[in-house]
Amino acid sequence: MLNWYEKNKRDLPWRHHSDPYAIWVSEIMLQQTQVATVIPYYLRFLERFPNMASLAKAKESEVLQYWSGLGYYRRARLLHRGVQKVWQENAGILPQEIESLKGLPGIGPYTAGAIASIAFGQAAPLVDGNVVRVLSRYFGLKGHAKSPELLRTLWEIAAILVSPSRPGDFNQGLMELGATVCRTRLPACERCPLAKGCVALNSQDPEAFPETPPLPKTLKLTRLAAVAQRGETILLVQAQHQRWFQGLWGLPGEFLDREADDEGLLSHLSQAYPGLKFSRMVALPATRHAITHHRITTQAWSLQVSGKLTPNPSFKKMRFFPKGALPSLALPNFDRKVLQAGGFCP
Question: In terms of residue numbers, what domain contains 89?
Fold first, then answer.
């Protein structure tokens, strides 16, 4: 595994150094997100927050701004809180012990194992989706990828296998193998350094390992949204209680359990923003967005606004932003899709 990794590892920016902070950032970004998607966000994030001090002292709104578009924003908030905790309680020195790492916001067993092995050279195991696939196939283990019994067995195996001399490279090698060779579909078994002893390959159906976990029921949601314009500005809000994307700016709107229409949007706007008057409604193209097992269809309208914003306890903040500021704001992707479909931002 170590020989294969040395010859075949991809040239990824977080592999150019052993800075524990930068490795921490990369591991949080890589959760539930593909490598190719992460790279530009990682580089931009570290350019703005090159060390723990810069991130610890930043406002959450700016952290979310530099995370905008990467999704799963809870990761950014927990990373921010974790860095602040280390900065305040441990003089900015990231602890090396697994249990201490797991005590930080947003760091679970996998992330703790990754940081401990890659940044600190500790013989700590890790198990992510790629490792589940590689080890399940090699040892021919039954059970689906989210089975507690299978995961418990895999953690035990990973702890036995991890190299005491090069744990970081070994762990990254397992993940690299799963990402580039031992793929979910059409694994390239002919290029696998572990092919000789692989139970799944010898079974003639490597894709049968691990078993597919039961799929959650897909929930379809309908959403109303308003691109409310006053001159060259657009109204954005932060709700007190958001279903997703806490702390992000978003378009005024609401979720419905029925078909969306312009009368429903006007009714919502008149109740939520009593100081404003809305006119000249124009329908925008419908947009669709997926969040976990939710499928969200947004029907939006552009409107002209007059009047004055008045306080509403349902919102933490309400503000008109210049259109030119929209690309740099921390916005949910489903709102960015609406703005792009209407030609309001690139």
Answer: 1-124
Phi and psi torsions of 75, nearest 5°: -60, -45
Beta bridge mates, 318 = 237
Tens of pLDDT along 9-57? 999 999 998 899 999 999 999 998 999 999 999 999 999 999 999 999 9
Does 263 qualify as catalytic in the annotation? no
Any idea what DSSP says for residue 234? E
Tell how strand 276-283 and strand 287-291 pair up: unpaired
Tell me the sheet residues that pair with 276.
Answer: 307
Asked if 158 and 82 sit in the same domain, the reply is: no
Which pLDDT tens digit goes with each residue over 177-197? 999 999 999 999 999 999 999
Q: Output the CA torsion 123→96→18→178 (10° steps).
A: 40
- Catalytic member of 6, 27, 97, 207: 27
Same domain, 119 and 1: yes
